[in-house]
Amino acid sequence: MTGGRPPGFNELLHFPVRLSLVSLLAPAAHVEFSYLREATGLSDSALSKQLTSLQDAGYVEVRRTGRRATARLTGTGRRALAEHAAALRTLLGNALDGDPGEVPASADAPAAGAAQ
Which residues belong to any copy of the Winged helix DNA-binding domain (predicted)? Predict the structure, then answer.
């Protein structure tokens, strides 16, 4: 791991708005610009800027037909998202497994609430 980040960690995709966008694009063939705008709450200009960043990286393809625009996740974008998700799982490890309140008491430590 370099700098505390596992392989596959993607700075571009880790930004919350871009991660939301690729997550919205992943299950669909093409997604309307208006849907992405509504789902993310971004202005037209902010959404265009984020899509351009993703497009410059080769992760997203934007198609314009007249006034209508759609976006889709490319194969490169899918791989980057999958690798980033795997890196996040590695980074989190077992942090989200179980409930800390369910951890069994060790033999040499008193149980929670036990009289000492």
Answer: 17-91
CATH class as words, domain 11-90:
mainly alpha
Helix (H, G, I), strand (E, B) or coil at 65: strand
Residue 114 phi/psi, 5-degree rounding, is: -80, 145
pLDDT in tens, 55-107: 999 999 999 999 999 999 999 999 999 999 999 999 888 777 777 666 555 54
